[in-house]
Design goal:
It is a single chain. Helix 1 packs across helix 11 and helix 2 runs parallel beside helix 5. The protein is built from eleven helices and no strands. It is mostly helical. 78% of the residues lie in helices and 0% in strands. The mean pLDDT is 87.
Length: 231
């Protein structure tokens, strides 16, 4: 207990003193996880809406794959992306392995099924009669989809929260594709593991506090938007 209290005290000192390395790690984590979340939204929302509205052979199999992907272990995603980006891999020519771009790709792979699955569930909650009424009133297919997405926007905010929460806190994929390089690819979670292994508990606790505060602030902002629009 004394170790924990001392660690918290020193952690607050480091954070309030504005330790440059800690804040650089925070900004990098926010950058890569925020970018990965945006990429997952750009791919997951259209995919989820398409799966919810379309009917085709094998649809149940695809939906099952999406639902399974929502629980995809980060290390599996990291292994897949590492193989793809390896020098002898299909995308090795990009030469982005062990860079922030590789972490963004890996985290987007993790978040995309989460966003797709939640979007699918949100759009399916909109009554089919509502969609048919829109088409009967002369709306085009594109207009109908847009209106349905607007109707489902409140539960879809959960997709943003879940997607961001899933990637900002993961470690396996970031370690594998980023390499935890100081000043380049070291994120909050990978730095926490490193500092804990070195016995620098005050630094690890400082990083943990920053991670918790960051996750809370993002979710608080999104929840405020969600609840305000609900009334």
């Amino acid at each position: 207990m004394d170790l924990l209290l001392e660690g918290v005290r020193q952690a607050l000192t480091l954070v309030l003193a504005g330790d440059s390395e800690i804040w650089a790690i925070l900004l990098l984590s926010l950058q890569v996880s925020g970018s990965a979340t945006l990429v997952s939204l750009a791919t997951g929302i259209p995919a989820g809406a398409a799966l919810a509205l379309a009917r085709f052979p094998g649809r149940s199999l695809v939906v099952s794959a999406v639902n399974s992907g929502m629980g995809l272990p980060p290390v599996v995603a990291g292994l897949f992306v590492t193989i793809m980006l390896w020098r002898s891999g299909p995308l090795g020519g990009l030469e982005i392995l062990y860079t922030p771009a590789a972490i963004i790709v890996a985290q987007a792979v993790i978040a995309a099924p989460i966003v797709t699955g939640i979007t699918l569930a949100a759009v399916q909650q909109v009554p089919a009669e509502f969609r048919l009424q829109l088409l009967a009133l002369g709306a085009s297919r594109v207009q109908m989809v847009w209106v349905v997405l607007r109707e489902a926007r409140l539960p879809m905010l959960a997709a943003v929260m879940a997607g961001f929460g899933g990637v900002i806190s993961e470690i396996g994929a970031s370690m594998m594709v980023g390499g935890n390089v100081k000043g380049q690819t070291r994120t909050l979670t990978t730095a926490m593991v490193l500092e804990t292994g070195k016995g620098n508990f005050e630094v690890a606790i400082a990083l943990a506090l920053l991670l918790l505060v960051l996750v809370f602030l993002v979710n608080w902002a999104l929840t405020s938007i969600q609840q305000r629009r609900a009334f």
